[in-house]
Amino acid sequence: MEFFELLRKRRSIRRFKDEKIPRKIVELILKAAFLSPSSHNRRPWYFIVIDDREKLDLLSKAKPGANPLASAPLAIAIVGDPEKSDVWLEDCSIVAEHIHLATFPVGLGSVWIQIMNRKSFDGRDAEEYVREVLNVPKNLRVPFIIAIGFPAEEKKPHGKEVEEWWKVFHNEFGVAYGRGEESRESPRPKG
Ligand SMILES: Cc1cc2nc3c(=O)[nH]c(=O)nc-3n(C[C@H](O)[C@H](O)[C@H](O)COP(=O)(O)O)c2cc1C
Predict the structure, then answer these.
(1) pLDDT value for 67
(2) Do both 144 and 176 map to the same domain?
(3) Is the CB of residue 100 below 6 angstroms from any atom belonging to ligand 1?
(4) Distance from residue 12's CA to the centre of ligand 1 (Å)
(5) Which residues, at least 6 apart from 118, have a Cβ–Cβ distance to it below 8 Å?
(6) Pocket probe mutation, ligand 1, options 111, 154, 156, max atoms within 8 Å of Cβ
(7) Which ranges constitute the DSSP H helices of the chain?
(8) Are residues 128 and 82 in the same domain?
């Protein structure tokens, strides 16, 4: 899949078929993660590959919006180490996006499940809940989980609607970038 086609076709997939993902494909996705950049190349991350149905079901109850994990046959939790880098969250975000993107060329779909800074249904900290389910040591963080599976829903690729040219400035904030066709096509929405 060509890179820009991948970017257009990437959508958040939240419903998955009940079909196991071959280990070779899981490893390919992890290889995409290993290729991620990081500040000072510190690579302040760990990955937990979760395919245990009971654990996935428990994780799907971590917070509102974690329900895609209930049908996902696989999830990869990103575990960050703040002691390794002061920009561990940036590094972990990029690695998570590598994983999310890598699922599409191999025929899978995926969605980012935010855990950090979210509350679980009973008002508990969602990260604490996930930490317990996955037995993650206290000094490490679990900012997000990527739910992965064969798509059971179809979504249109993104088109022009995402092109917010009005948010692009030239040399200083507030000065519109370009007067070309593209910027005329996407005026700032009202309201
Ligand atoms: C930081 C971040 C947190 C997100 N958290 C969730 C989440 O907890 N649950 C969920 O279903 N989708 C989550 N998403 C997916 C977004 O809702 C989705 O990317 C957005 O609506 C745009 O849709 P698209 O990914 O199909 O382009 C998250 C995405 C990002 C980048």
Answers:
(1) 98
(2) no
(3) no
(4) 6
(5) 62, 63, 65, 126, 127
(6) 111
(7) 3-9, 23-34, 53-60, 88-102, 126-134, 181-185
(8) yes
Is 99 near ligand 1, meaning CB less than 6 Å away?
Answer: no
Give the atom of ligand 1 at the shortest distance from the alpha carbon of 158.
Answer: 27
Q: What is the pLDDT of residue 178?
A: 80
Residue 185: what pLDDT?
54
- 173 shares a domain with 94: no
Q: What is the reported pLDDT for 23? A: 98
Residue 160 tokens, joined: 């022009």
Q: Is the CB–ligand 1 distance for residue 12 below 6 Å? A: yes
Whole-angstrom distance, CA of residue 75 vs CA of residue 145? 7
Average pLDDT along the chain, 191 residues, taken 10 residues at a time: 96 98 98 98 98 98 98 98 98 98 98 98 96 98 98 97 94 87 61 69
Q: Give the type of residue at 63.
A: K
71 CB within 6 A, ligand 1: no
Same domain, 171 and 81: no
Q: Is residue 98 part of a domain?
A: yes
CATH number, position 140: 3.40.109.10
- Mutation pick for ligand 1 pocket among 6, 7, 110, 112 (CB with most ligand atoms within 8 Å): 112
Give residue 44's domain range: 3-149
Clarify whether residues 78 and 27 are in a common domain: yes
What is residue 106's predicted lDDT score, i.e. its pLDDT?
97
9 within some domain: yes
